[in-house]
Amino acid sequence: MGISSAETFYPGYSTARNSIGDLGASLPPNSMIVQPSATIFDLVVLATGLLVLAAAAILGRAAFVWPMTVPLGLYGLGAFLVGVFHGNWANVHTLAALLTFVAGGVSAIAAATAVRGPFRIVAPVLGAISLLTLASYCVLSSASPMTASGLGGLERRIAYPAILFVLAFGGYLQGAAASAPVVTRVA
């Protein structure tokens, strides 16, 4: 919702032509102007990164599956770094975004080792969509069929499945906690 909100405040923003990171108002002619879109985007991405990092740390301390919590933590770190380093930090921003994209997809796939039920299938599918879209672009560049909707559409096909995974995983954990047997003390 933060991305959608920031899009409405960015003059001339196109979900097809502009990357998600452009919402930080990093491209000319807006690179020197702090816009409401930049404030919204940066705060949302920084908060998301911190919350995902905290969740990964809590899950790790609770002896949750490490092959899933480490990439989840890297996903949070990458998101936080995207908020810190705008597109005008070209190489650093690109590396932070790449870390976010890869770690998000890997954590979703690795979730299959830690969850049960239908989510054991749904989570890896979300991760695979994200990673296969990224790989398609990395290998084929503009010849990738995923670029038909522009760079912005491509990025959303990479980012949104990972975001959806994190939201669904939170719901999964809430449901798992609610269905856990209650332990009563015998006095």
How would you describe this structure to a colleague?
The structure is a single chain. The protein has 187 residues and is mainly alpha-helical. It has one domain (2-167). Helices cover 67% and strands 0% of the residues. It has six helices and no strands. The chain has helices spanning 2-8, 36-61, 66-84, 90-110, 119-140, 150-179. α1 runs antiparallel to α2, α3 runs antiparallel to α4 and α5 (119-140) runs antiparallel to α6. The chain is globular, with a radius of gyration of 18 Å. Residues 181-187 have low confidence and may be disordered.
Strand content: under 5%
Total tally of structural domains: 1
Assembly type: single chain
Q: Sum up the overall morphology in one term.
A: globular
Number of helices: 6
In the predicted model, the low-confidence regions spanning at least 5 consecutive residues are 181-187
The helix/strand class is mainly alpha
- DSSP summary, beta strand count: 0
The SSE string, one letter per element, is HHHHHH
Report the mean per-residue pLDDT as an integer.
85
How many angstroms separate the termini? 49 Å
Largest sheet: none
Radius of gyration: 18 Å
